[in-house]
Amino acid sequence: MNDNRTTERKRTFKGARIHLDAASTMDCLVRSLSKTGASLEIETPVGIPDTFALLIADEVRTRNCRVAWRRLRRIGVKFT
Fold first, then answer.
1. Which of left, alpha, beta for 23 (phi over 0: left; psi -120 to 50: alpha)?
2. What Å distances lie between residue 7 and 16, 38, 55, 64, CA to CA?
3. Strands (E), the chain
4. Residue 5 confidence (pLDDT) above 60
5. 4 falls within a domain
6. How many domains does the chain have?
């Protein structure tokens, strides 16, 4: 399996919130994090769009994300 990451990732276990639109959010866990993206653990991939904003616990700003890959309970995102 090829690893296409361009930056080092760190394993983590942080709470986060996916902002689906102005009024809807979904909780998730950040399982790995780098300067350019993250791996998120989710309850279900149903309803998660290709792009969204992510607010990681203890951070002030949201990060705009684009989904790079999807698995049953995980998604990989690239920060845009």
1. alpha
2. 21, 11, 21, 18
3. 10-19, 25-33, 37-41, 51-56, 63-70, 74-79
4. no
5. no
6. 1
3-class secondary-structure state, position 66: strand
Q: What angle do CA 8, 10, 15 make, to 5 degrees?
A: 135
Query: What's the CATH code of the domain at 38?
Result: 2.40.10.220
Confidence of residue 9 (pLDDT cuts 50, 70, 90): confident
Q: Which domain does 33 fall in, by range?
A: 10-79
Residue 23 forms part of a structural domain: yes
pLDDT digit string (tens) for 13-53?
Answer: 999 999 998 889 999 999 999 999 999 999 998 899 999 99
Residue 2 lies inside a defined structural domain of this protein: no
Residue 52 lies in a domain: yes
Q: What is 33-45 written as a DSSP string?
A: E-SSEEEEE-S--
Token duo for residue 40: 């998120």
